[in-house]
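[[Encoded backbone]]
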Amino acid sequence: MKLVFLFFIVAVMVSLFVGMTEADKPRFLTTVCQDTYEKCKEQMLKKDKK
């Protein structure tokens, strides 16, 4: 889970540098958040099955 959290922080940092235009920033952040959320959900489902 630490790796996912670290990836999220890096992605946010990258989004701030890369997506400087206001139109791109929310779209990029939304994609990152959804991607991170899906990964977290998968991890939680795997834990529940054990």
The mean pLDDT is 78. Residues 2-49 form one domain.
